[in-house]
Amino acid sequence: IVARTITTFIDCDTKQRRCRHWGDGPAGAQPEDHCSPHLKSAREVLCVSGSDLQRVTGLSSSDVQQLLIAAATSCRRHHPIAALVLHRKFDAGLRLSVGCPVLNQLLRGGLLVGGVTELSGESGAGKTQLALQLCLSVQYPTQYGGLHSGAVYICTEDSFPIKRLQQLITDQSLLRSDVPPSLISSLQFSDRIYIEHVADLDSLQVCLSRRVPLLLTRGLVRLLVVDSLAALFRSEFQAADWLERSKQLLTFSSTLHHLSSRFTTPVLCINQVTDFLSSSDDSLGPLSSSVSPALGLLWANQVMVRLMMRRLQVTVAQGDQSSVLRRLEVVFAPHLARSGRDAAVWREGVRGVMREVEMSQWRGSEEGGGGGPHFCLTNKETNGCK
Amino acid sequence: MQRSVSSLSLSPSVKVKLVNAGFQFTADLLHVKPLQLSKETSLSQLEALEVLQAVRGETGGGDNGAGGGGGGGGASSSLTALELLQKEEELRSIVTFSSQLDAALGGGLPVGKTTEICGAPGVGKTQLCLQLAVDVQVPQCFGGVGGQVVYIDTEGSFLLQRVVDIATAAVQHCSLLVEDDEQQVAMATFTVETILSNTFLVRCHDYVELLAELHLLPDFLSNHPKVRLLVIDSVAFPFRQHFDDLSQRTRLLNGLAQQLISMATSHKIAVLMTNQMTTRLRGGQSQQVPALGESWGHAATIRLLLHWAGPQRLANVFKSPNHMGATVRYQITSEGFRDVDQSEQPPSKRARKHTVQMAAAREPSET
């Protein structure tokens, strides 16, 4: 066989063994001739086309096919599985409860455990409140909608609202009337929430590549919250740096996806909003307010479930507390309809408020859920109770 | 055939080259293509063709098309256009539950061709894929194809909760159409459980896993001849991760497109792919275009663009060899992908009797 001029050899013996293990090599050929130093792994072999492989390794086309199939078999995680097998697994349809039966009904059980959920809204809409509630709800056992583990909370802008967290912990038994009080008092909530402060993208990348995987591997956490990501990506880049920004955004989102799928962990990203520039910019569907989530189409393509929270012009009262009413809406999700529920923020947390028409629909459906106290809705304009 | 190559009527230099390359007997040459032969023996293509003709002439049997074909010369004989037309008409299209979309596509999703769905996030691409994954399993006596489906999920958006919704609605829809015993028997094999068992799911986490799966798919398809649909949701997601070398991405996508087209024609399956949208700046104006570049536009035979127009959802067939571009309205309900007007006709290629229309009219009041 003709000797080729190959520039550098790195440990040709191991490549020889690797080539033989892959089952190629016609008899009589020299091993060096079909191992190029550039193909070091099965993944790289798959990224080269069949004819390029032939040229580089000098194998015949049927041998190249065999090589490709062997490389593909080693890269593949599992055979095609019938969906029925997945349906019958015990953790099919696992969800992280939000802590309120009304909001859980909107989300058909709660947050998805695989994939990125985005929660966007104006400042003061209640996004951080909902995120804190999720950090507590993840610590309950699975029968109460939790994942029996802690949470990682990554703050990028303000400092972590520790006083509010303490308040929520104190009043947990009020919010979660479905959980026995003995269980609530036995859980050390604040011990299992890990707070990270990151000020720029580099430290965010370090945090996501080192500290968070460590916590996830040890099983200490099963919820990742990033509050808020628009702050990092907007401030650091000028308008002309959009290429660099896109690259960073894609790297960040791919890290999130890998973490989420490897550890079956829900990821919640809190996002800010930006105004609509023109009425023709409705490519992402009709929105009920004049603002849309920041970071544009590139980020929207990476998100699986998009939720929006906005303040309404209505106040609602409960006992001695009063709260501005919010609306939590599903913008898109693979398994959810585009609808929303009103919610109010109380001392004990975020609780959904059912409107009359939604209540009658809910009574008609099979599951009623736990149900918290119902509220009287005072409308400022009509000054009456709904 | 243990006949030695040296006994063939060829020039001596050619024989020497053949023997040096390892082809001792005519049996070695039986299943070799001319291009492959010329590469391995460093013969010219013309000489390689002559050698193969001599071998096939000597063995007496062989393929009719080998002499006529150029570089191809495989085992298939050439077909006339009439035969191709007859073959195409035998393959039924996959009927969706949206008659307007079926009309725009010319009868449904064509089997044997590649189709691409582009759209912004949240417009309904995954919903249409899930709907078709259920619709391909509708039994033949109801006008469906009665096949299985391989669903390659790269984003994680294949949620069983939603699939069960769509499957339940489809089973209910068909059970209202039952008119005779044959359909009654077929309904026993068309339940939510059988729909789930006939859907083969693969979860790919990056583009290498996707490429690996596509290399191994022809084997799987040969072992499962009832598969009629391959869904890849979505092709864009793993390929829009950061690539240092964009030309490598284009090469990989071209290779992928070729593989999908050859799988569609050789195994007689419909291939459905999902693509994302990206913004392109052109002369100071930005517009949304399908992602993955211009050359990817040639990969699919038929391209559908799903988009919003105010509160309405529209589907636009903007590339199709058979039919001119049409735009139809659709909606996504709890039952799946449907037409907008409620009086949609249930999918059936048989003559409609008035009992069927009564069943369709009964439906809205039952929900």
Automatic annotation (TrEMBL), chain A:
InterPro entries: DNA_recomb/repair_RecA-like, HHH_XRCC3_RAD51B, P-loop_NTPase, Rad51_C, RecA_ATP-bd, XRCC3-like_C
Domain RecA family profile residue range list: 92-273
Chain residue ranges for the region called Disordered: 362-386
Domain of life: Eukaryota
PROSITE patterns: RECA_2
Compartment list: Nucleus; Cytoplasm
Keywords: ATP-binding, Cytoplasm, DNA damage, DNA recombination, DNA repair, DNA-binding, Nucleotide-binding, Nucleus
Pfam families per the UniProt record, alphabetical: HHH_XRCC3_RpoA, Rad51
Major localization listed first in the record, in broad terms: nucleus
Protein family according to the UniProt entry: Belongs to the RecA family. RAD51 subfamily.
Protein's job: Involved in the homologous recombination repair (HRR) pathway of double-stranded DNA, thought to repair chromosomal fragmentation, translocations and deletions.
Protein name: DNA repair protein
Source species: Gasterosteus aculeatus aculeatus (three-spined stickleback)
Lineage, uppermost ranks: Eukaryota, Metazoa, Chordata, Craniata, Vertebrata
Automatic annotation (TrEMBL), chain B:
Region span, Disordered: 337-367
GO molecular function: ATP binding; ATP-dependent DNA damage sensor activity; crossover junction DNA endonuclease activity; four-way junction DNA binding
Biological process annotations from GO: meiotic DNA recombinase assembly; reciprocal meiotic recombination
Principal place of residence: cytoplasm
Alphabetically ordered keywords of this record: ATP-binding, Cytoplasm, DNA damage, DNA recombination, DNA repair, DNA-binding, Mitochondrion, Nucleotide-binding, Nucleus, Phosphoprotein
Location of the RecA family profile domain: 90-277
Pfam families referenced in this protein's UniProt entry, alphabetically: Rad51
Transmembrane segments: none
Record localization: Cytoplasm, Perinuclear region; Mitochondrion; Nucleus
Top-rank taxon: Eukaryota
A Gene Ontology term for the protein's cellular component: Rad51B-Rad51C-Rad51D-XRCC2 complex
Family: Belongs to the RecA family. RAD51 subfamily.
Name under which the protein is recorded: DNA repair protein RAD51 homolog 3
Organism: Gasterosteus aculeatus aculeatus
